[in-house]
Please model this.
Amino acid sequence: MEEKKKIKSVSYAKWGYIFILPFFLTYAIFSLIPLVDTIKNSFYEYFYSGLKPIGPNWVGLKNYADLLSADLPKYAWNTFVMWILGFIPQIVVALLLAAWFTDSRLRIRGKGFFKVVIYLPNLIMASAFAMLFFALFSNMGPVNNILMSMGWVKEPIRFMESTIGARSLVALMNFLMWFGNSTIMLMAAIMGINPSVFEAADLDGCTHRQKFFKITLPQIRPLLTYTLITSLIGGLQMFDVPQILTNGQGGPDRTTMTLIMFLNKHLLAKNYGMAGALSVYLFIISAILCFIVYRMNTDDDPDGSKAAAKKAKKLARKGGAAQ
Model:
């Protein structure tokens, strides 16, 4: 009889789980457990009266109701306004620069130098940036001195004491810090487009505007979605710039107070119940807005088959009605 050779099958699947195990352990320890604890605290009355802890006492949804009846909607509006004021010029300038730097017809010299220059503000700490702008735009700062010496204004402009001025400064700083990063990412996305597509468009006589709106923008839609979502999350987490610029007061009249600044005040006061409820609100708002942005920028019919099927059904209905 011939001996049957037993071939042992070696499974390498377990090694994949072993290699990813450190990530899940780290995530569970530093993210998942604190997240669950935060949600739990949001349903309790838990704060400090002096050095004496009060609670934790179960209060249900009282913390959530108290936040809505307080100034939470106002601070959410402040955060959204300052984010949108900085994001719109950021994405517009980033798209223009990315299109110019990747256009072979323009033959721009020193592209590497310009890439470094526009990315440099992203390397500066937000705290240093805020201190710089605080010094530049103070009542007796260089900007006011220059404007007065040129005769454009008769008295110093109080940027920090007006709602428009303070919000504009925060938006300007966010724009300067992040437009370089967006430009580099969009340049990478545009350079990833097949050059033959642009060559075919040139042969068909397409203009630069047509190529930009009909080819470039649709091709880089995934990265635009990523940029919008990350910028939205970063905008909801806006803290350091307005905190330093307004000395943590959110002035004038709390018109630059953001959601994270409001959260920080609860944490400093050791009101962990309200801080937990506010954190849950931030999580819900972020999830809803990111889902909306994702759905708006996701093409459910990339090959046009669904649209063609709908059109065929309409034609069939019209034909049946005519008969």
